From TrEMBL:
This is peptidyl-tRNA hydrolase. Gene3D superfamilies: Bit1. SUPFAM superfamilies: Peptidyl-tRNA hydrolase II. Keywords: Hydrolase. It comes from Gordonia westfalica.
């Protein structure tokens, strides 16, 4: 981000945060956002200086005394990214459009942190979108230079994101499903970034009209762990263009090129 940041890397107090009341979905804006996601191919070289890397920060709310359910937290994280990517402020002349264009033209990076109490409250003042699933909450922030990351987010811990629970393996009846790789061991923070990426790629499987309806419904989706048999079928579906796989660059936790999550649409 450029003009939306002050010299300290913070956004103007008059402009930060979500609107105080829900804003109606603009179908034309969703179509423009959807077009960006469909056209996204990823890649690109990293800049010379690490501070110039473009990344989307994510924050998971994990209260020490009452941590959320693992499935709900990952679902909230994925929905937060999808909601941000299809937000009217990310389209056309919106205040987030330039940052989203730059990020989608670079190598996609997401970094998940944890917050609780006053830290979580402060993070709500930074440009982004929060999603709630059950008792879990997660927020995705407008991407920008790592060196410009708002200090209210930068100071949050990247580690310590583990929560209890296991992902279900059964398929839902319909809708967007993000299947995680049963053969990879990833922290919740790492997996949150992966399902967030998968929720973006799922847009490639939607028509523009479907994307509008999905955004109006606040991007419902399911996060599941695939069985080994289903995973093999999903890899075949990805090769055939019927599903979309996330292939990790391998900067943390897992080997480069690992397929971490596969998005598919189950239609009635």
């Amino acid at each position: 981000m450029t003009d939306d940041l002050t010299s300290t890397g913070e956004q103007s107090p008059a402009e930060v945060g979500d609107p105080p009341a829900p804003v109606p979905v603009d179908p034309e804006a969703v179509v423009a956002d959807h077009r960006r996601l469909v056209g996204y191919v990823g890649g690109g070289e990293d800049p010379e200086y690490p501070a110039d890397v473009l990344a989307m920060a994510m924050v998971l709310r994990i209260e020490k005394s009452d941590p959320p359910d693992r499935t709900d937290l990952l679902t909230a994280a994925a929905r937060a990214v999808a909601l941000l990517c299809l937000d009217h402020r990310a389209a056309g002349d919106g205040p987030w459009a330039s940052a989203m264009d730059d990020w989608c033209n670079a190598r996609i990076r997401k970094i998940a942190r944890r917050a609780r109490g006053s830290q979580w409250a402060a993070a709500q003042e930074v440009w982004g979108v929060t999603a709630t699933e059950g008792d879990a909450e997660a927020r995705a922030f407008v991407p920008g230079r790592v060196g410009d990351l708002d200090r209210r987010v930068k100071k949050l811990q990247i580690g310590g994101t583990e929560v209890d629970g296991r992902l279900p393996t059964e398929a839902p009846g319909h809708g967007v499903v993000l299947w995680t790789n049963p053969g990879l061991d990833m922290t919740v923070g790492k997996l949150a970034a992966q399902v967030g990426h998968a929720s973006m790629l799922a847009a490639k499987l939607l028509t523009a009209d479907e994307a509008i309806r999905w955004r109006i419904a606040e991007c419902p989706l399911a996060v599941r762990e695939a069985t080994p048999e289903r995973w093999r079928a999903l890899l075949d579906a990805d090769a055939a263009g019927a599903a979309v796989a996330v292939r990790d660059a391998g900067f943390t936790e897992i080997a480069p090129g690992s397929v971490t999550v596969i998005a598919e649409i189950i239609r009635n």
